[in-house]
Hints:
Layout: E1 5-6, H1 10-20, H2 26-44, E2 50-56, E3 61-67, E4 73-78, H3 82-91, E5 96-104, E6 111-117, E7 126-130, E8 133-134, H4 138-148, E9 154-158, E10 161-162, H5 164-173, E11 179-181, E12 183-184, E13 187-188, E14 194-195, H6 201-206
Parallel strand pairs: 1-11, 4-5, 4-7, 7-9, 8-10, 9-11, 10-12
Antiparallel strand pairs: 2-3, 5-6, 13-14
Helix pairs in contact: 1-2, 2-3
The chain binds uracil (URA).
Amino acid sequence: xxxxxxxxxxxxxxxxxxxxxxxxxxxxxxxxxxxxxxxxxxxxxxxxxxxxxxxxxxxxxxxxxxxxxxxxxxxxxxxxxxxxxxxxxxxxxxxxxxxxxxxxxxxxxxxxxxxxxxxxxxxxxxxxxxxxxxxxxxxxxxxxxxxxxxxxxxxxxxxxxxxxxxxxxxxxxxxxxxxxxxxxxxxxxxxxxxxxxxxxxxxxxxxx
Length: 208
Ligand code: URA
């Protein structure tokens, strides 16, 4: 089974620790989330292909690298995925944005879709699917299934925290989709929350 890429940059790890702390306020949490999302996006986009184009600097012409291909689509798994958008768009300002709306059935923990909107021409686009928490993996698996229906060029999955159970479930269904995360935690509790985790990511970022 493919191993997730753990983004172990010291700035990411430090910010993640601050986010985990129960005494971090909603406003601090949001600021940290924006900053960490930017750093994660920086690492996840390391392998984007470049092409060379002729430009003119104030002093001389040169062949300079630019990103190849159509704009990336960042697809947020609502609602918590939306919290990662600002930071990612800070560093990828021209990216397009899609949304997948899924809710977890509280009894079965299975994902149910209520919204789906992505840009046109998905066949030519690379998708970065984002959700802060890969817990049971049900939402992520369902979201990837839905995104695969529009046939994007590639899909990567980015989260902040992953549980071993979620990684196993995800890899079982989508071994072709690489996972990027800032940390892999110990396990899930009986309610499907990641331990030690950071609590409910949506509640912490929106103050609900
Ligand atoms: N969703 C969250 O927000 N937190 C968890 O720990 C698991 C799922």
